[in-house]
Amino acid sequence: MSDDPVKGWNHQPALPLTVSPFFTWPLRPLEMLRWVWNSWFLISEKLILVGIALASFYWFQPPLEETRTLAVGWIAELYIRNLCLMTLVAGGLHLYFYTFTAQGQRLKYDPRPLMVNGKQFTLGGQIRDNMFWTLGSGVFFWTAYEVLMFWAMANGYAPVLTWAAHPVWFVALFFLIPVWESFYFYWIHRLLHVPVLYRHVHALHHRNINVGPWSGLSMHPVEHAIFLGSVLIHWVVAAHPVHILYHMQYLTLTAATTHCGFEGVAIKDENRLKLGTFHHQMHHRYFECNYGSLEVPWDKLFGSFHDGTARADARMKERRKRIMGG
User: Distance of CA 275 to CAs 93, 195, 227, 253, Å?
Assistant: First the structure.
């Protein structure tokens, strides 16, 4: 088999896919700097999320003094804020890519349309199903974890980081949270593919073989509780409330962007804002590969990495035969 692309896709990025240069040897400093620059600077998803977290903190966040006592008022404020954020991001992406088809098929991975009907979906259709689980269970658990963290920080149960005391660590946390999430996501994702958990929990998310923006956070409530539990690291690692907002918004809002089905927003035939990853798009089609992300390459280490080539596809099929035969 060759390194030619696997057939059946409308669009594929440059192949073979490569993992973070921070985990390859020998180290290539220029490649490492380019990776950080492309991930973070100019117009990037992560930088936009930092901006959303800062805006949420300064304009829509109750002070810790208020969150010391659980009360319907401030909890409802968080819930409404999160409901609006998810609707704006997932709904906006869906309108842009699928309702208005603003860029047609450019940078779209799967040539097929999203499913209008399907008995496997709650409420009978893919979009209705995805919206139901995202806005119902997803936003509920998102808000519940924020409530828990802000209450714990206000009452001294979780450590609080301040800019004045640790400015370098304050900034570094924004860069480290995605790395932690990549590590955490791989391992809980492998856990969710254990047959009993897959059948009763994770299969709900995998109804979406061809994904759209509302698919990312469309999960079983048990999976929401596990997936969003990544933020509990801040019971040990001190953080500021703005880091909690960024952490939770990174988990939830990038679920919409990475599942949008497009590599990014095309302006004058160039990808001006990178969004959906082909790495995870393949996971939804092939299932037993690419459980993590390219940030921390556990898939490559444990043999589940699909780089998009025919050679990797043949290797994955052979691996599946060995597993089924065993």
Answer: 10, 30, 20, 11
How many percent of the chain have pLDDT more than 90? 71
Model confidence at 326, pLDDT cuts 50, 70, 90, reads very low
How far CA 168 is from CA of 55, 161, 200, 258, 304, in Å, comes to 21, 11, 44, 29, 36
Helix (H, G, I), strand (E, B) or coil at 10: coil
What is the predicted pLDDT for the residue at 42? Answer: 76
Other CB atoms within 10 Å distance of the CB of residue 197: 17
As beta bridge partners, residue 267 has 270
Q: Which residues does 191 contact at the CB level (< 8 Å), separation at least 6? A: 197, 226
Tokens 């492998």 identify what position?
A: 190
274 forms beta bridges with: 264
Here the tokens at position 85 are 């954020």
Q: Omega of the bond prior to 113 within 30 degrees of 0, cis?
A: no
Which residue has 């930092």 as its token pair?
A: 50
Residue with tokens 């600077």, as numbered in its chain: 41
Cis? peptide before 195, omega within 30° of 0: no
Q: Say how far apart CA 262 and CA 255 lie, in whole Å.
A: 13
Tokens (6 digits) for 45? 């998803």
Burial of 5 (0-12, 13-18, 19+ CB in 10 A): middle
The C-alpha atoms of residue 300 and residue 142 are separated, in whole angstroms, by 30
Q: How far is CA 215 from the centre of its chain?
A: 11
The pTM score is 0.94
Residues 112, 212: contact at Cβ < 8 Å? no
The DSSP code sequence of 236-268 is: TS-B-HHHHHHHHHHHHHHHHHHTSSBSEEEET
Spatial distance between the Cα atoms of 103 and 150, rounded to a whole number of angstroms:
41
Q: Please enumerate in sequence order all residues whose Cβ is within 8 A of that of 288, keeping only pairs 6 or more positions apart, or say none.
A: 193, 304, 316, 319, 320, 323
> Per the structure block, which two tokens stand in for 175?
């860069």
Q: Are 41 and 47 in contact (CB under 8 A)?
A: yes
Burial (CB < 10 A; 0-12, 13-18, 19+), residue 317, is: exposed
